[in-house]
Write a structure and sequence with these properties.
mainly alpha; single chain; two-stranded antiparallel sheet; 182 residues
Amino acid sequence: MLSALLLPVFILPIILLVLLASWDTRQWGVFSQQRVGQYGSLFPIYKIRSLRGGNHVLGHLEQYASPFGRWLRRHKLDEWPQLFNVLFGHMSFVGPRPDVEGFADLLEGEDRVVLEVKPGITGPATLKYANEDVLLSQQIDPEAYNVSVIWPDKVKINKKYVHNWHFFVDLTYIFQSFQINL
């Protein structure tokens, strides 16, 4: 319901950012990708396109981003279209970030508790790794670092979030997200 109330306010800025991203990247300014959601179901996540070109290598995403794309990513404005994901019921405002196939869908045992909740636009792991692209770009093998260090830590953080969920804690994460992104 909150997304339905926010979309009329955000729709014009989203349209403007999509048009600017289309001009900047020379591609349609909306990026969509399949992500793993609640109970392991797939859904299309929507973002404003911030990268130029095609096949992007993990840990080197910043080199594909234009100055405008880096600005979008730094202020998380590329995430605004996810209000539609919330409206459609694929996501919530707070929860574990939805990942591409090959991560959350492969969780086993107690780790699968992460899939019992809707993924969120923000959450504790999102806040801790707000500068994940920069961190990965500093690694010799970004993909190995992601798999061996970042991903296990995110699972641990997200499990703790699910087990200790409280509405007022979610509000804290939302406020922290606004502070980081301003």
